[in-house]
Write a structure and sequence with these properties.
Jelly Rolls; single chain
Length: 566
């Protein structure tokens, strides 16, 4: 960077700082326009600085940003801004075939930085009405909605039939519709506060935040006072809770029904699921009472709480299952350690809460060093007995070193995201922007990406998947895998052992990868102005492995199946 360019960026940075703080004068705003006009590198610097300011606002708890009406921003600028937030750089956005006139360029860039800064700092800046009319347009506020009625809180050995409604992971939002539980146990919490333990095989239909239909199977319900009126229907009856704990067992395709009242009171109404229930109570059950309904006959009996799993028993079963899976995973780790092509294996295991070195379990091969932990805190991993590291600050990272080049590698990581990747989140990144360096990250658009510097150190290319991350995945353990194969000229991405994309490496410019000084969970790469952007992972990681060969789908699936939490 020349001395003249450095002075220009220093001046622009000082002016943008004033603009961000809302103290820039009219003359300083005019100078910013002049500096940005017709200079893609200056625009790149501006957008990088704006992204940094925005991220700092979000990290430090900024107030809600303003919304600007679409009519206040030209179509070209609105589209460009959208492309920027999808991960494209300024140079990609400002294509060569678009050459605005100087007057329009000044006005467009001026509107862009005014609109963006307004959204970031939530401050009113005084501009002439003819330049920007955003202040005269009332913001359009649309609330984000969803139709969930319950959540899956816990499961042990649960196998769900994929009918488009069933939950796919723990803590997943459940929507109205049938849940087909082939086997195992699932704990469901309704938004009303009612809790249900469902034992498979079972067919359980969610109808509202405080009601459901049990078509087949066994369930136990614990209903707090605030969920009084929680109801469960069958082909024959509707059970309405009056603040209690009860169980139900449906067999023979709904023709044999048992209702057990363990505590409190429940009312039972006649119902055939097609008509409105009869307002006349068919039977009321108190603590310790139960009935057995066969065809049109009702038989009284004593409640049998031992026949239905309790929450304490579920918790114990969950811990036992977790312990078993943890031990199975440990056996897999020993197999990986013995693999002749394993280069690095950070399993986050058997390390104390004060240790600041992440042990590479195959460091004896001298390919990759141990990791130096910076900022991260130790926490639980996929199982209560397993360790992991939490990344939540721009300072959090694990530093390591590897000086050897590799023509083929497989990157494998178990992560749990705590926030959507609305910005780039680095899983691993070279610390220097040198030839053959890499960045493996989740882009702000939810794509998994491998960015590579070419053999001459001048060109850079991203090999990205389609969007694979969405809000339903937050708080859940995900297995991310990327295979770089310079021999087959491909980059392949996987999510939970499912191939999500395969890209061809064109030309001969990307023949190998060189990690050098690198970081897990963050990136120290600088932007053109010499500033470090915020790219840290927000979440947890409890396993990271690098293989010196291209793992096939079967091998990746085995790592996922044995390593998934349950």
């Amino acid at each position: 960077m020349t001395e003249t360019t450095q002075r220009k960026f220093s001046q622009l940075e000082e002016l943008l700082s004033k603009l961000h703080d809302g103290v820039a004068s009219d003359e300083e705003k005019r100078i910013i326009e002049d500096l940005l006009s017709g200079d893609p590198e200056a625009c790149e610097f501006y957008l990088d600085y704006t992204e940094l300011c925005a991220q700092m606002e979000f990290e430090l708890g900024a107030s809600t940003p303003l919304e600007i009406g679409n009519n206040a921003i030209s179509a070209q600028i609105s589209e460009s801004t959208a492309l920027f937030y999808r991960g494209q750089t300024t140079k990609q956005i400002l294509s060569q075939n678009w050459k605005p006139t100087p007057v329009f360029a000044i006005a467009a860039i001026f509107v862009l930085f005014v609109g963006t800064v307004l959204m970031i700092v939530n401050k009113q800046l005084s501009f002439a009405p003819q330049a920007v009319e955003a202040q005269s347009i009332p913001p359009k506020v649309e609330g984000i909605t969803h139709d969930g009625v319950a959540i899956l809180m816990e499961s042990v050995g649960a196998s769900f039939v994929n009918n488009g409604v069933q939950p796919s992971r723990e803590n997943g939002i459940l929507y109205p519709g049938e849940i087909l539980l082939e086997s195992g146990i699932a704990a469901i919490e309704f938004y009303s506060g009612a809790r249900v333990i469902l034992e498979g095989p079972a067919i359980f239909e969610l109808t509202s935040e405080n009601s459901a239909i049990l078509r087949e199977g066994r369930m136990r319900a614990l209903v707090p006072p605030q969920a009084c009126g929680f109801s469960v229907s069958t082909r024959q009856i509707e059970v309405v809770d009056l603040g209690t704990e009860f169980g139900m067992n449906i067999q023979d395709d709904g023709h044999l029904t048992e209702v057990h009242c363990f505590n409190g009171l429940v009312d039972i109404y006649e119902s055939d699921l097609k008509k409105e229930k009869n307002d006349k109570v068919l039977r009321s059950l108190e603590s310790g009472e139960a009935i057995n309904i066969q065809a049109s006959k009702i038989y009284k009996m004593s409640a049998n709480p031992m026949a239905f799993i309790t929450y304490n028993e579920l918790a114990q079963t969950f811990l036992e299952n977790s312990s078993t899976r943890h031990e199975q995973w440990k056996s897999l780790i020993e197999e990986i350690r013995a693999d002749q092509d394993i280069l690095a294996l950070y399993n986050f295991e058997d390390q104390g809460p004060r240790e600041r070195s992440l042990v590479n379990q195959v460091s004896f091969q001298n390919h990759f060093s141990h990791g130096a932990i910076v900022g991260c805190r130790w926490t639980n991993g996929r199982w209560p007995s397993k360790g992991g590291l939490e990344f939540k600050s721009p300072s959090d990272r694990v530093r390591f070193q590897s000086d050897d080049p590799y023509q083929t590698i497989t990157l494998s990581a178990w992560v749990r995201l705590e926030a959507m990747p609305n910005r780039t989140m680095c899983l691993i990144s070279s610390s220097e922007n040198a030839k053959n360096s890499l960045t493996w990250n989740l882009q702000g658009s939810g794509k998994l990406s491998l960015g590579l510097k070419n053999d001459k150190g001048k060109g850079y290319k991203n090999f990205s998947s389609p969007q694979i991350i969405n809000r339903s995945m937050l708080g859940k353990w995900l297995h991310l895998t990327t295979v770089f194969n310079s021999i087959d000229r491909t980059v392949t991405h996987y999510l939970n052992a499912n191939e999500v994309s395969k890209s061809q490496i064109t030309g001969k410019a990307f023949s190998q990868i060189l990690f050098g000084n690198a970081e897990i969970g963050n990136s120290s790469l600088k932007n053109p102005s010499g500033k470090t952007l915020i790219r840290h992972l927000t979440g947890r990681m409890d396993e990271f492995a690098i293989f010196g060969r291209a793992l096939n789908t079967e091998a990746i699936r085995r790592i996922y199946q044995i390593g998934k939490p349950n």
